[in-house]
Specification:
Layout lengths: L1 E5 L4 H10 L8 E5 L6 H5 L3 E4 L5 H7 L3 E6 L6 H18 L3 E7 L10 H14 L3 E6 L1 E2 L4 H8 L4 E3 L8 E2 L1 H13 L6 E5 L6 H12 L5 E3 L2 H10 L7 H12 L9 H6 L6 H12 L1
Parallel strand pairs: 1-2, 1-4, 2-3, 4-5, 5-6, 6-10, 7-9, 8-11
């Protein structure tokens, strides 16, 4: 029986694969990807690379055949598309006889006002309805999501936000990846929900830590949602994505990511990477 990870060539998925390989042999790991040719490096490591498309239920069921433990990484797209894709994947896992499902969800999903919450709520419910033991990994916010703002700030631009005093539990994708790897490969995580959040910071507090790391003075400019939308448009964000990035700011402002628990440390078996060390790593990767 295999352990399988979906979306294994994505930014988070690739990190999870590497973390899992420190815990189990490559021969016990499978991945499902839409384009297997993009996963040739994984195949060379001895990983079982399987083709699957979230829009093709039959390909999902075939990919999940013989899989005991499944990590379902949430897909990209609009809410309606993601709900359809995720529920199809969950049904395929049930039909294939998968005995454990871990799913990358969103902070405080069932009570969240975040515009991206609906697919996660629907997916969690679909998994529960199968009766299959599960673990919901409710990821807060990846520090890497701020890469563009960090790049701009390092070039002298102000840090523009409409998030007000809303707080976020930023952490590196590597920390989320290691947590997922542990849940996927360890016993004792059945029927669990983990709120994976780093310490909470406002935009100003995050920028203060960035200033400490870089030695640069960075101005934080709090603006209205309308002004933020215009700033993002001027920065080159595509028109279709403007409502999304503005909605994220709004959801932070109303506290949808202000979830702080000890779950992250409990799953990792260590503290989350401190924010300034995390920023050092991210800034280094951007240079």
């Amino acid at each position: 029986m295999k352990t399988l990870i979906t979306g294994a060539t994505g930014r988070l998925g690739s990190k999870i694969v590497q973390s899992v390989l420190t815990r189990i042999p490559a021969s016990e790991l499978a991945v499902s990807v839409r384009n297997p040719e993009k996963a040739s490096d994984l195949k060379e490591l001895g990983i079982d690379v399987r083709q699957a498309d979230f829009n093709d239920p039959s390909s999902l069921e075939k990919a999940f055949a013989g899989v005991e433990r499944l990590l379902l990484i949430s897909a990209d797209g609009d809410n309606e598309t993601r709900i359809k894709q995720h529920t199809q994947a969950v049904e395929a896992a049930k039909q294939a006889g998968v005995s454990f499902i871990a799913y990358t969800s969103l902070a405080d999903a069932t009570d969240s006002q975040n515009l991206m919450a609906p697919p996660h709520v629907a997916t969690e419910q679909a998994i529960k309805e199968t009766g299959i033991p599960y673990s919901f990994l409710r990821n807060n916010w990846y520090l890497e999501n701020e890469a563009d703002s960090i790049k701009a700030a390092l070039q002298g631009a102000p840090w523009i936000t409409s998030a007000g005093s809303g707080k976020v539990g930023w952490a590196l994708q590597q920390d989320y990846a290691e947590a997922a790897a542990r849940v996927l490969t360890e016993d004792g995580h059945e029927f669990t929900t983990y709120e994976l959040s780093g310490p909470l910071y406002t935009q100003e507090e995050l920028v203060g830590h960035l200033e400490s790391v870089t030695g640069k003075n960075i101005t934080v400019k709090q603006v209205s949602d309308e002004e933020y939308a215009e700033a993002m448009k001027q920065a080159g964000v595509p028109d279709f994505a403007i409502p999304i990035v503005v909605g994220i700011q709004e959801s932070i402002r109303v506290g949808s990511l202000a979830t702080e628990t000890s779950d992250f440390e409990a799953v990792l078996g260590r503290p989350v990477t401190p924010i300034e060390e995390a920023l050092k790593q991210l800034v280094s990767s951007l240079s």
